[in-house]
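Journal club side-thread
Mid-discussion, someone asked how the predicted structure for our own chain would compare to the paper's figures. Pasting it here so we can look after the session.
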Amino acid sequence: MDTGAGTSDSACAPPDGASRSDASTVSVRRGGRVEPFLHAHPRLSSAAAQWSGVAFEEHEVPACAIPRHEHAEDFLHVVLEGSVRYEVLTRGKTFKLRAKPGTIFVLPRGTIDEIRWSGPTRRIAVSLHPRLLLDALEETAHRREIELAECWDLSDPNIMALLVAMRTDLDAGSPAGRLYGESLSNALAVYLLKRYALNPRVPTLCRGGLPGHRLRRVIDYMDENLSRDLTLAQLAAVAGMSPHYFAELFRQSTGRAPHQYVLQRRIDFAKRRLSDPRRSVIEAALDAGFQNPSHFARVFRKWVGISPSDFRSAILDRPFAPARPLET
């Protein structure tokens, strides 16, 4: 194909002998091997966040050719910057298209294609494990294959908003841990089922909230494990239901999404630790489940209005009111 501009195959294709990819990277099959979708090192990646069921990467890529490959998992691709021409070879056809910020691909697993980009772009690439879509179905649904429609030149503000929110969380260092990113992934799976499944299965509308005994069990589990990096799947398992159902019913019961509720519990726990003169600010952060002191300070200030150090000083320096004399 001639795109009218020079391309750099090495920027997009892994070199000979490249190591196998893993579940935390966006991967494809080439020549019988599992390899990274793009050879370029991602600007952002969900690998460190360890989100379950989804791999997310942001890349800055020059004009390049992406050699023939097969998507082993459902795949999303969003252009963030760059207005360029691109050509797609798939199923014996050639599509000549033009990308701009907001251009989206939705590709079902098993899609085989080759792409040439005529200019540089900044883009998001996401692979979705089949489990993510299956877990978004209603509790009693028969487990079966879910196939998404193949879309090569799409504009969808809902997908864009969810992926940008995931990017923002990774860029901030995922201060709420895995729970927020996995909640966004769950919302993405539900939307894809409604909008792009070939045989649409709309998840049943959840009403009524969690039964009281399940809600208490989940909250107790949260409080006992605040120092851990809790996941949506763990909390859903404690409640005995799928992540989608759990997230919706928990929100109805508490008025907050699971990640917001956990974050509030962590802030409250950190306040108690900061009020103890035997605990340092760093110890308070770690005990409350914040693995990075800078993330703790930023989140604490956002929720409380002052820094952890200022909160601690205000509490510990506060004079005690004199005891009132006993009435006779």
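Post-session note: The chain is about 35% helix and 20% strand.
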